[in-house]
Amino acid sequence: MSENSSEKKRIYLQPWPVRIWHWINATGIIVLIVTGAQIRFPESVAVLSSYKSAIDVHNVTGLIVSISFSFWFFYYKMVKNTLDKLYIPDEEDLKHGLVRQLLYYCFWYFLGRPSPYHASPDHKFNPMQKYAYLAVMFVLMPLVGLTGILLLNVTPLRILVLMWGGIKFIVALHFLLACSLLAFLCTHVYLATLGNYIKPMLIGWEDVEEHEEKHVEAPAAIPGYRPVRHYPEYAEMQHEQRQG
Amino acid sequence: MRYRETAFFLTLSIAAWVCLSVLAQPGASAFSYGEEAGKNESCLACHGDSAQVPKGFFIDTKHFNQTTHARIGCEACHAAVPATHPDGAKVARAGCGECHADVDREYATGLHVKKTTCNGCHNPHMVHSPKEISGQEINAMCSNCHNTLEMTARHGEWLPQSELHLRMLPCITCHTGSKEYFISMYIVKSKNGSMFGKQEVAGYDELKQMSGGKEIVSLIDKNRDNYVSLEELRVFNRSQNSLRLHGMMTPVSVSHKFEILDDRRNCTFCHTSGPALMQTSFIAVPEADGSYSRVPVEKGAVLDALYGTPDFYMMGSTKNGALNKIGLAIICGGLIMPVGHGFVRFLTRKNRNTKEHKS
């Protein structure tokens, strides 16, 4: 590890399957939101020329996003085998990481302090991202997809529709989940402008300053210190206290 | 002169013999028209008994007695029944158009006129008003000629979810030019009593049995005020495993000009008409005579996401106001971060500029 703090290293953060999936998903979800709005509010939303075309586009896009979601799941779970590691928060994230990240976004960011978290290919998400993505990727997306598939095949899947509480309940759930996804989308796009998230999602690579890496590993060697991963500032502070 | 007298007495005696022979027949009073009371009984004495008349001439007394046609009497249409009846000769019958001239004229301009006449769809001895019939029965009438599978395929060429549409709508909703609609709910029963079995319209006898011999409506209308409230619907939906309510969008007035209406091919004819049409609904309760009586349901019941009938939903049109507000609140929640954080971010931009400058 280099001691030169100004040296920059390129890390390959987002592999190409993930990037393709991400942008298919992004485009698909926007199309779904727009067509979904026309289906629910046809008298005030008229993006597509007819109601039927809104339904057709919504159905086809919904299927594309569902298939692309399945590919994403398969890729991370089976090919890369990093799904659990990337998306499921560990004890450390739960105890310290989440609060720290929240404090950073709510206070420290405004004071100009650096982020307590830096992405690496094995730890791409900060604790807050992990929780958000856990909810979005493991609850919202599968549920919105499944309710959509049920609504697309009401007659052949009648028994499943009844098991889910009837068509009206499924429609209500599908609508509220879609609203939640839209709410997430607003926050997601905004937060992407806070850090350096957009570039790696386009080209795959991110430039990171090498010196930050050292703080990640340093605190573990300090006796009595409870290591906090991905939080160099806190580690540095602890280190200075012991030195002083 | 003597010849004339002989002819006169001969004619008189033949007439008397004819009258006497008619009067001597069982039930012969049926042919002495003019009395109001009991005028149908003598016809039904034979025609109401399937053992006495061929199948095509049998009249189901139970059904017939409930119809408007029973009230006007057999002879209103069959005036020229000869005294020799039954002699195998055809009995004259009035054309429907003699009373229903308006309907006849309208029907003549529609698509069906070349294919069938009134009794192709309506048995004049079993006619019910649209109020006394369930949507499924209306479709059963249509499917006598129109093959359901073929119709589903043909509608599917332009109609999304054609099977669902054809199952959940009476054909006349789209093929007659009614301006107003209401939601007709009817009780369906799952086969084998399982919640997930194939559903079919529940018959009078089984519902009567399920209600413990009480009026069928008491299965839903618990306080028997002939009005179904949302609360009563909620209790019914939760307590019944095998019974459910199916809703159909039904025209208020049924015209007889069956036609292919281009505006009905435009989805927004139904799907944007808005909740106003979805406010009025009835439950069609089967009666002993095979007809249905309508029990009014609390306004807006089909719009209610939790308490109303769980299987009636029209995209776009059945928007639930409460759900829209919850959805809007969720989206606004998502905007807190970009708007709130973005605002403070803008105010404190100097902090970050200084820091960046230092490093």
From TrEMBL, chain A:
InterPro entries from the UniProt entry: Cyt_b561_bac/Ni-Hgenase (IPR011577), Di-haem_cyt_TM (IPR016174), Hydrogenase_cytochrome (IPR051542), Ni-dep_Hydgase_cyt-B (IPR000516)
Any one Gene Ontology cellular component term annotated for this protein: plasma membrane
Keyword Ribosomal protein set for record: no
GO molecular function, one term: electron transfer activity
Transmembrane segment boundaries: 20-39, 59-76, 131-154, 166-191
Positions of the Cytochrome b561 bacterial/Ni-hydrogenase domain: 14-199
Subcellular location: Cell membrane
Gene3D superfamilies per UniProt: Transmembrane di-heme cytochromes, Chain C
Chief localization: membrane
Protein's GO biological process: respiratory electron transport chain
The entry's keywords: Cell membrane, Electron transport, Heme, Iron, Membrane, Metal-binding, Transmembrane, Transmembrane helix, Transport
Family, as annotated: Belongs to the HupC/HyaC/HydC family.
Official protein name in the record: Menaquinol oxidoreductase complex Cbc5, cytochrome b subunit, putative
Organism lineage string: Bacteria, Pseudomonadati, Thermodesulfobacteriota, Desulfuromonadia, Geobacterales
TrEMBL record, chain B:
SUPFAM superfamilies found in the cross-reference section: Multiheme cytochromes
Keywords per UniProt: Membrane, Signal, Transmembrane, Transmembrane helix
PROSITE patterns, per the entry: EF_HAND_1, EF_HAND_2
Transmembrane feature ranges: 326-348
Coiled-coil ranges (or none): none
InterPro entries recorded: Cyt_c-552/4 (IPR023155), EF_Hand_1_Ca_BS (IPR018247), EF_hand_dom (IPR002048), Multihaem_cyt_sf (IPR036280), Multiheme_Cytochr_ET (IPR051829), Paired_CXXCH_1 (IPR010177)
Superkingdom of source: Bacteria
EF-hand domain mapped to chain residues: 208-243
Range of residues in the leader sequence: 1-24
GO MF: calcium ion binding; oxidoreductase activity
The protein's name: Menaquinol oxidoreductase complex Cbc5, cytochrome c subunit, putative
Lineage of origin: Bacteria, Pseudomonadati, Thermodesulfobacteriota, Desulfuromonadia, Geobacterales
Name of the gene: cbcA
